[in-house]
């Protein structure tokens, strides 16, 4: 009897409480513009002297990016944005990045975070996740897309020779499972970060990567699920296009090849195989000295605009995750977060700390945009 009543109820409830992961969050929805990025772009435009470039740059504020919760004090701001999206009405998607693992960015220095494993960071991270849960539960009518922990699990596929990563491995896995387990609300869609084609797309890495994603999902418990994976976050690879010589001999040298190769491996491991792909700075190819270069790469341009017209049913949407103009890391070699990648000849310099505004780099990204802004 209870079951029959429940079935009848389910049949007539509004669509926003459909099982979140069974369809794309972007279907029939508008994507919310993150106010803090709109302000950053407006300030940048006000500082430009070239009026043609300024007019092009002004259009960037209309492109939705992801709001990065790279410190726990940004969680209340997520709440403000959810409230604003709710008030705007219609079906709104708010896009955000969960990015605060203890011993974060274990194989690089540039994005080391606020929590450390040695100092109670795991419990602090759980509290951070709990505070995110409290926010999304207040706004059940707003769809929330989260990318979970850029580079976190990917580092465990290839960088266990780095002591900080080896030491963090079990904690990263447990905490990503915890985040998945807690964020099962019907208005939440989760995409775990899956590195990019030039990292986990290599034949030696792709199978262990699929197995790791599946085991972390299993760790979240039998009822828990995700929508899929996010690729190319803060990187520079094309969705599809000619091979850049530095990518050889990787057969999966662009994001679509990587996704097409990864999807069946995920399916074999009972892991959902839908994707979103960051193209915010992927407009120009052939600019890196080495495939692994990631820091403020010189010559980069804004890439494909966000769209659900992806040409591939595995890909829910092209998205802009990295807010163009925010630095990947400082080039100041005396900073505690200095990473040598940010001082290489293919990295724009002088560059400010990760996440802070890098005006000349933003201007170059607009200048080199492909497709152009006009
Ligand atoms: C930084 C974060 C920042 C994000 C988006 C990361 O590299 O570590 O602080 O929020 O990029 O710009």
UniProtKB/TrEMBL annotation:
Q: Where is the active site?
A: 105, 151 (proton donor), 328 (proton acceptor)
Pfam families registered for this protein in UniProt:
Glyco_hydro_6
Q: Identify the InterPro entries for this entry.
A: Beta_cellobiohydrolase, Beta_cellobiohydrolase_sf, Glyco_hydro_6_CS
Determine the domain of life of the protein's source.
Answer: Eukaryota
For the region Disordered, give the residue spans.
320-351
E.C. number, please? Answer: 3.2.1.-
Keywords for this entry? Carbohydrate metabolism, Cellulose degradation, Disulfide bond, Glycosidase, Hydrolase, Polysaccharide degradation, Signal
Describe the family membership recorded for this protein in Swiss-Prot or TrEMBL: Belongs to the glycosyl hydrolase family 6.
What name appears for this protein in its UniProt entry? Answer: Glucanase
Q: Which organism is it from?
A: Phellinidium pouzarii
């Amino acid at each position: 009897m209870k079951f029959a009543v429940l079935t009848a109820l389910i049949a007539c409830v509004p669509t926003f409480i459909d099982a979140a992961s069974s369809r794309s969050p972007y279907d029939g929805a508008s994507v919310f513009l993150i106010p803090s990025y709109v302000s950053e772009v407006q300030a940048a435009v006000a500082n430009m002297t070239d009026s043609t470039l300024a007019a092009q740059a002004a259009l960037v504020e209309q492109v939705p990016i992801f709001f990065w919760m790279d410190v726990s004090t940004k969680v209340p701001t997520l709440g403000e944005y959810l409230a604003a999206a709710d008030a705007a009405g219609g079906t709104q998607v708010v896009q955000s990045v969960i990015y605060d693992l203890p011993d974060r960015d274990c194989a690089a220095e540039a994005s080391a975070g606020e929590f450390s494993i040695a100092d109670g960071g795991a419990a602090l991270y759980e509290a951070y996740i709990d505070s995110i849960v409290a926010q999304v539960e207040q706004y059940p009518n707003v769809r929330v897309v989260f990318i979970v922990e850029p580079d976190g699990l990917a580092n465990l596929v290839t960088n266990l020779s780095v002591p900080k990563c080896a030491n963090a491995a079990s904690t990263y896995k447990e905490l990503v499972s915890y985040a998945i387990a807690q964020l099962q609300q019907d208005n939440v869609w989760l995409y775990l970060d899956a590195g990019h084609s030039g990292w986990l797309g290599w034949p030696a890495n792709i199978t262990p990567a699929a197995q790791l994603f599946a085991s972390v999902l299993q760790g979240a418990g039998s009822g828990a699920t995700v929508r899929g994976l996010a690729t190319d976050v803060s990187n520079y690879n094309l969705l599809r296009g000619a091979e850049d010589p530095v990518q050889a001999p990787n057969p999966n040298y662009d994001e679509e090849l990587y996704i097409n190769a990864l999807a069946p491996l995920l399916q074999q491991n009972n892991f959902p195989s839908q994707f979103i792909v960051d193209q915010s700075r992927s407009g120009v190819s052939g600019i890196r000295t080495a495939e692994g270069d990631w820091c403020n790469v010189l010559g980069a341009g804004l890439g494909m605009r966000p769209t659900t017209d992806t040409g591939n049913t595995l890909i829910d949407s092209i998205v802009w995750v990295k807010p163009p103009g925010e630095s990947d890391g400082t080039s100041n070699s005396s900073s505690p977060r200095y990473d040598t990648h940010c001082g290489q000849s293919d990295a724009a310099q002088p560059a400010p700390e990760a996440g802070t505004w890098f005006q000349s780099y933003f201007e170059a990204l607009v200048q080199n945009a492909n497709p152009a802004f006009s």
